[in-house]
Amino acid sequence: MRAVVTGAAGFIGSHLSAHLLAAGDTVIGVDSLTDYYAPALKARNLRELTPHPAFTFHRADLLEADLAALLDGVDVVYHLAGQPGVRPSWGREFALYDQRNLLASQALLEAARGRPLRKFVYASSSSVYGEAPIFPTPETVCPRPVSPYGVTKLAAEHLCELYRSAHGLPSVSLRLFTVYGPRQRPDMAFARLIAAALSGASFPLYGDGEQTRDFTYVLDVVSAMRDAARSRFTGVANLGGGSPVSMKQAIAAVEHMVGPVNLDPRPGGLGESRHTGADISLAARAFGYRPRTELLDGLAAMAAHAAALRGSVIG
């Protein structure tokens, strides 16, 4: 297939691009290389993709790009670009979330409308659920986000559904539950945990550590994205790891694997859900989703990657 991947230089986007290329697809990567975290890390992700003859990259903002030209002859759009982060989405920064999560999505959907796409795959988030009343949480639960970030992800998801019902755009919104793995964004918990264990720096632990997350390995996620694109399914589906663990358990696993972590306890963050857990039965039925990576195996791969990078920097 010929695919456009927005956010191709990011954590999940770079893994997805590599997975598609390995499967024989042609990939057009789009990324504006924002400075939410170091653009140098995104450039490093791209260096693993650009040598491939079936990969082309466009540095572009979706609100300014010639989207019609980018989508010409494309079979699938994987829309992963956006402004991440729950804590920074409050206050004056919200304008960025509105532009990059909602307005950019609407521009891309409008450009995709009327084209003979096989699928439009949108990377949504478990943040849309907020404090869910049921665990594991099925897609039938009414989303009630507890952060401005979650509101923008849900609003973009609603737009995908609107373009699907009104214009026949074959869209799939995948609600991703805490994705981790090598190249994870440096602001995310596992990346900070492993960095703290390797360097001796302190790790800020927000809350009491009993909060749980349904951690999902990145290669399981990107495989599911391509499977969803190849399936007949349209609509909304969860992608989770299948076995939520507490932050205390996650910290213990990292300490066992890498070394001790110096904890810096802090109050819980505003807008963060206490627990998350995905009911993945719909994705299993619709496109054969099954998480294949155990948490310890995924953490081991992530720790090895981080240690190798640290060694190359020191060397």
Please give a structural write-up:
This protein is α/β, with parallel strands linked by helices. The chain has a single domain, classed as Rossmann fold (3-Layer(aba) Sandwich). Helices cover 40% and strands 18% of the residues. The chain has 10 helices and 13 strands. The chain has a 7-stranded parallel sheet, with helices on both faces. Helix 2 links the parallel strand 2 (26-31) and strand 3. It is globular and about 55 Å long. The mean pLDDT is 96.
In terms of topology, how is this protein built?
Elements: E1 2-6, H1 11-22, E2 26-31, H2 39-47, E3 55-59, H3 67-70, E4 76-79, H4 94-112, E5 119-125, H5 148-167, E6 171-176, E7 179-180, H6 189-199, E8 202-206, E9 212-213, E10 216-217, H7 218-230, E11 235-239, E12 245-246, H8 247-257, E13 262-266, H9 281-287, H10 295-314
Parallel strand pairs: 1-2, 1-4, 2-3, 4-5, 5-6, 6-11, 7-10, 8-13
Antiparallel strand pairs: 9-12
- Unreliably modeled segments: none
Instruction: State the separation between the terminal residues, measured CA to CA.
Output: 41 Å
- The appropriate CATH architecture is 3-Layer(aba) Sandwich
Tell me, what's the shape?
Answer: globular
Structural class: alpha/beta
Report the mean per-residue pLDDT as an integer. Answer: 96
Count of alpha/pi helices: 10
Q: What share of residues is helical?
A: 40-55%
Strand content: 15-25%
> What is the CATH H-level superfamily?
NAD(P)-binding Rossmann-like Domain
Could you name the CATH class? Alpha Beta
Largest sheet: 7 strands, parallel
Tell me the domain tally. Answer: 1
Strand order of the largest sheet: 3-2-1-4-5-6-11
Radius of gyration: 19 Å
CATH topology, by name, is Rossmann fold
Give the strand tally: 13
Please write the string of helix (H) and strand (E) elements. EHEHEHEHEHEEHEEEHEEHEHH
